[in-house]
Amino acid sequence: MMDGGVAMSTIDEIMKLLAEAKRQADAIDERNLSYQIVTALLVAQEVSLGQTSKRPRR
Q: Which domain of life does the UniProt lineage start with (predicted)?
């Protein structure tokens, strides 16, 4: 299992890549892709803030 520092740097890197992907999707006016990327970015943000346990289970 990864320690907190490694996990956070991995999440930070994923968030940077997702942000860049969103900029690229916006540049080519891919709204559906942009929406999906934002959804993934919000989940990554929740993980980085440790808020995933507060999400309701479906």
A: Bacteria
> Are 48 and 11 in contact, with CB atoms under 8 Å apart?
yes
Predicted TM-score (pTM) above 0.70: no
Q: Report the distance separating Cα 24 and Cα 50, nearest Å.
A: 28
Task: Give me the half-sphere count of Cα atoms (radius 13 Å) on the Cβ side of residue 32.
Answer: 0
CB under 8 Å to 56, separation ≥6 — which residues? none
- 3, two tokens: 């320690």
pLDDT in tens, 12-41: 899 999 999 999 999 999 999 999 999 999
What span, in angstroms and rounded, lies between the C-alpha atoms of 23 and 19? 6
